Amino acid sequence: MLHALLSAACSFKLPALDLKLPSPSLAEDGRFGGGGYATALRVCADVLSSPNDSGGWRELGTLLHGKGRLDASAMALRRATQIEPLDSEAHVALAEVWLTEVASEEECEWVIATAEEHNAAKGGWACRQPRFAPEGTVANAVRAPDMLVADEPRLLAWLNEKCDHTILPALEAQFGIPARELWLYDTFLLKLGVHVDDDGFGLSFNVLLSDPADFEGGGTRFPPNAFSSEAAVYTPRRGQMLSHYGGLRHASVPCTGGLRYIMVGFVRAERLVELRLEDAAYGARTGEG
Predict the structure, then answer these.
(1) In which order are the strands placed within the sheet that holds 146-148?
(2) In a 3-state reduction of DSSP, which class is residue 260?
(3) Is 29 helix (H, G, I), strand (E, B) or coil?
(4) Where in the chain is the domain with CATH 2.60.120.620?
(5) Signed CA dihedral, 175, 168, 98, 202: sign only
(6) Which InterPro entries match (predicted)?
(7) Fold of 93-286
(8) Which residues contact 238 (CB under 8 A, 6 or more apart)?
(9) C-alpha span between 241 and 218 (Å, rounded)
């Protein structure tokens, strides 16, 4: 396992576990992310020299997360938890689900109209495999008309303004992570309700764009978990953002009539790796997961 994690961190296959210093040019190569190639080698060397130090494993997990190696990151963080278990008191923020007003009815109408105009010009909405759902899950089999917000410059500009003034400040207040450390890595519009199981390492939000009178059903359901013995269903008002930790298991309540537009977004930050670590550790001790 260690050999595979170190190879992932350094972005190349290690012929053996002995590490060599990189050349100056490679040390400054931005392709390696997380502080560069030299940083990756330093972190790997720390883990090799002190395999029982939780700090080294945690730093390796953070580095792998920044490189998009989420499975490898989780393995490193679980090792850190085995060495130094975390206090369950740190899990309070993970259970919170907030509703925040982020858009007016007029803005919601404009977003829907702009999205329809954009997709009509392309010949219709796409219906792609969900990028947010792992293979083999129920969510992965769902297909719904969708579009990336980044594909429409007017919607992207509107979203960026909302992130600066409403969305990211609200997430900062909810999770205690400074807004400057949060970055939005995916946002899209959907025309139908879909099932989502676990969004993994980040924070999730969705904004209801449709008038609730235009559809029946809908909402987001959170099944019983380590924080609550009862299920809860949230039904935002138009323009409200529902936000929660991505690792909190949840499902979209299907529409039984009409048409619902929602905007879904996923946010990451290095500190979220620590939240995921705490979530995994707490679940292991309570039988959740």
Answers:
(1) 98-101, 240-245, 203-208, 262-268, 183-190, 146-148
(2) coil
(3) coil
(4) 93-286
(5) negative
(6) TPR-like_helical_dom_sf
(7) Jelly Rolls (2.60.120)
(8) 105, 108, 208, 209, 210, 211, 212
(9) 14
CB atoms under 10 Å from CB of 42, counted, come to 18
DSSP E strands in 167-286: the ranges are 183-190, 203-208, 215-217, 220-222, 232-234, 240-245, 251-252, 255-258, 262-268
Placement of tokens 């939000």 in the chain: 205
Task: Write out the two tokens for 164.
Answer: 């600066």
The one-letter amino acid at 7: S
- Specify burial of residue 68 (Cβ count, 10 A radius: 0-12, 13-18, 19+): exposed
Per-residue pLDDT of the chain (289 residues; tens, 9 = 90+): 555 655 555 544 433 333 333 333 333 333 333 446 677 788 888 888 888 998 888 788 777 766 666 667 777 877 887 788 755 444 446 778 999 999 999 999 999 999 999 999 999 998 775 555 545 555 555 567 889 999 999 999 999 999 999 999 999 888 888 888 788 878 999 887 544 455 556 789 999 999 999 998 888 888 887 667 788 899 999 999 999 988 788 888 888 888 899 999 988 876 666 655 555 444 433 334 4
